[in-house]
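The methods section describes the discrete structure representation at length, but only in general terms. What matters is that the chain and its backbone geometry are given together, residue for residue. Nothing conveys this as quickly as seeing an actual entry. For illustration, here is how one protein appears when written out as sequence plus structure tokens:
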Amino acid sequence: MDNKLLKLPEETFGEYIKRIRELRGYSQRKLSTLSSLSNTTICRIEKGTNGGIENPDAETIAKLAEGLKLNKETLLIAAGYLEKKDTKEANDIKEYIRIALQKLGWINSYKDINEETITYVEFLLKKYGNRYKQIP
């Protein structure tokens, strides 16, 4: 991935979205159309902590990723929902998720699941997994 598309440490999520939008040459209205989000929502996300939306939900992030032509995982990391991992750890987690989904009968074979689904399952596990951990 092009380093220009990664979030800079000093950027807020809103500043990052605005920078990527401008790199793509999109107006807020154009991004609104491409992402199926309202123009007001785009504006509020870009405002972030200054009276806007500081932490958009996963559905909004998925729509932004589609509109900005970015991987969902990239935006989930930028929003702070996922941590950036080294490649080996990421591959191990993806492998465990594939095995678990196959054992649960949610997929028939290893090839039935794509990277986007794995990333989303990982996000859900990190967000909601602590609620369902078995207490010893």
In short: Residues 45 and 53 are 5 Å apart (CA to CA). DSSP finds seven helices and no strands in the chain. The radius of gyration is 17 Å. The mean pLDDT is 80.
